[in-house]
Specification:
The complex is a heterodimer of chains A (316) and B (257). Chain A is α/β, with parallel strands linked by helices. Chain A has helices at 44-51, 69-78, 95-105, 110-123, 139-151, 169-184, 196-202, 220-225, 269-278, 292-315, and strands at residues 5-13, 19-28, 33-37, 59-64, 67-68, 80-83, 157-161, 188-192, 205-210, 213-219, 229-236, 250-255, 258-264, 283-288. The two termini of chain A are 46 Å apart. The mean pLDDT of chain A is 88. Chain B is mainly alpha-helical and 257 residues long. In chain B, 77% of the residues lie in helices and 2% in strands. In chain B, α4 packs parallel to α7 (140-164). The longest helix of chain B is centred in the first third of the chain and has 31 residues, at 59-89.
């Protein structure tokens, strides 16, 4: 099957000599919901910039649904919709005009552009604001406006660069539902985000980029499986004694009603509950101390940093 | 892209440009009309009546074609430089850059937007001029062609200025320090026959002189220069500036990194 996105040895060196991408390669399959994660300055936005022609690559190959961008970029662009990190629409234009005009840039006849504009403004809850100037919208509405604009030509591949940054929880949830809906309808989605629970909830596959290199590229499930331990916070109904016994588990009392327990690979939560129950402690609620993907993400970046330091040491 | 898609894309850009300058008409259409009306009253009627004939016409008749051309030049330039730079500043130029629209279509859309404003302002200024004097166009073809090509040329110049501009100050430098002096010294208010041979020779290095005189030839039938030179010069400059603009869009680092 032709990949929705194929990147091979992609390189970008800026004029000042900074190497933003050091020959990265990965593929995204059609229909996938793919997370591209990395710390600030890792190369995510540079990669997206190359895909949508705002940044010129200095090496490597990129194909979108089998179309090499060096051979026929306009055809590849027809397949692609991009929601950038920063607002990039005219603040003085009307919401309706911004979306409808974008259809024209993709060669859509006016009637079709108008039909799609109504469809996506309604879906994203912006139809009532269609005659408002863009500057009058709230931050969340502006994000939704950029999604509507990116979808006007119904691209097969949609790239969202931190689409929920600064968006409140309720709106974020509704955006997740919308993205899952269009993904279920066949649109391949690539998402960059700093909210790792967002990536874990939505995405099936993942690439982690750091300092211009891909340091992990696998499925979210496989990645989560590599977790050796998980840290849970438990709340109890009873007052916890300072001399609480954790048995084989590593743990500590946080306050009178909560404790933190580390569960290693191979240990069972049932054993933990049984052990606590034997001490007349009933657990009323339990949660992860941090998002599982976040734990992995931090540990992968730390490993990469140590590896780099070791390489430098060998060289010197 | 197919011709149909290119046309849709081009007409979308043009429609947006026209919508932009008509939406802010108090900033784009009214000021040139007021300025030109003042020129007509002060230079044409009040001072002009004491100057007497120039080039065989009353001073008002002589100055009207130059003032219409001046309005066309400044408005064509101003429209494109401010619109394209604003699009860069607000980053909505990326809407076009990420789309399959070819660079030449982007350029053509913005340039024709500038031409639309230039010609609308020129038309309004002509109507006002008719309050002060009667105009009978001698060579309609020359008049229409030179005003259109001049508008294209200065729209292109505005487009290049906008590509280079890094701040709003940068888009006012060329109009203030280059365009205005060249226009004032380009035979709008006087015939270069009034100048000494040295200054006449120097004036002939000013491209605006050729356009103003070609337009005056179209309207009044008189010119300080050969009209053929004006058309040749304008076409050469349009070719050069188009090529430069496309080169900047394709290889320059001001729109794409």
């Amino acid at each position: 099957m032709t990949a929705a996105l194929s990147i091979k040895n992609l390189e970008k060196t800026y004029d000042n000599g900074f190497q933003a991408l050091k020959g990265i390669s990965f593929e995204v399959q059609p229909g996938d919901f793919f997370a591209l994660l990395g710390p600030n300055g890792a190369g995510k936005s540079t990669t997206i910039g190359i895909l949508c022609s705002l940044v010129r690559k200095t090496g490597g190959e990129v194909s979108i649904f089998g179309i090499d961008i060096d051979r026929d970029f306009p055809a590849a662009k027809q397949m692609l919709g991009v929601v950038p990190q920063e607002f990039n629409f005219s603040q003085f234009e009307k919401v309706y005009d911004i979306v409808c005009t974008q259809g024209g840039f993709y060669g859509m006849p006016r009637a079709l552009a108008e039909e799609r504009t109504e469809k996506y403004l309604r879906k994203l809850g912006l139809w009532d604001k269609r005659n408002a100037q863009a500057r009058m919208l709230s931050g969340g509405m502006k994000r939704r406006l950029m999604i509507a604009r990116a979808l006007i030509h119904e691209p097969r591949l949609l790239i969202l660069d931190e689409p929920t940054a600064g968006v409140d929880i309720e709106l974020r949830r509704s955006m997740w539902e919308f993205l899952q809906e269009i993904n279920a309808q066949g649109t391949t989605i690539i998402l960059t985000t700093h909210y790792l629970e967002e990536a874990e909830s939505l995405c099936r596959n993942i690439a982690i980029i750091d300092k211009g290199d891909i340091i992990e590229n696998t499925s979210i499930k496989s990645l989560i499986k590599t977790l050796n331990k998980e840290v849970f916070i438990l709340d109890s109904r009873e007052i916890l004694s300072a001399t609480l016994d954790f048995g084989d588990f590593e743990g500590r009392r946080l306050d009178e009603h909560s404790l933190e327990v580390t569960v290693e690979k191979g240990q069972s939560l049932s054993d933990l509950f049984a052990h606590l129950s034997a001490q007349n402690i009933s657990v009323t609620s339990m949660r992860n101390r941090a998002n599982r993907l976040e734990e992995l993400f931090v540990s992968l970046l730390a490993q990469n940093k140590m590896q780099e330091a070791a390489n430098k040491e060998v060289k010197s | 892209m197919s011709p149909q898609l290119i046309w849709t894309s081009f007409s979308t850009i043009l429609r947006r440009e026209v919508r932009r300058f008509t939406r802010i008409w108090p900033q784009t259409l009214v000021p040139p009309v007021i300025t030109m009306s003042l020129y007509f009253v002060i230079f044409g009627a009040l001072i002009g009546s004491r100057i007497g004939d120039m080039g065989g016409f009353s001073y008002m008749e002589f100055v009207v074609p130059g003032l219409i051309m001046m309005a066309v030049i400044t408005n064509s330039y101003a429209n494109v430089v401010s619109s394209f730079y604003s699009a860069k500043f607000q980053r909505n130029v990326e809407e076009l850059l990420v789309s399959p629209t070819p660079n030449w279509v982007v350029m053509a859309g913005y340039v024709l937007g500038g031409v639309a404003r230039g010609l609308i302002v020129g038309f309004i200024v002509t109507l006002i001029a008719l309050i002060f004097t009667s105009l009978s166009v001698q060579h309609i073809g020359v008049t229409i062609l030179i005003v259109f090509l001049t508008s294209v040329l200065f729209s292109l110049a505005g487009f290049i200025n906008a590509i280079f501009a890094n701040s709003f100050d940068d888009i006012s430098i060329i109009p203030t320090f280059v365009l205005t002096p060249l226009t004032y010294l380009g035979g709008v208010f006087y015939s270069i026959e009034l100048l000494s041979p040295f200054w006449q020779g120097l004036s002939k290095l000013n491209p605006i002189l050729y356009m103003v005189n070609a337009f005056r030839y179209g309207v009044l039938g008189v010119s300080d220069i050969h009209v053929g030179w004006a058309f040749a010069g304008v076409l050469v400059f349009i070719t050069l500036l188009s090529g430069w603009a496309l080169h900047l869009m394709k290889h320059g680092k001001r729109l794409r990194h």
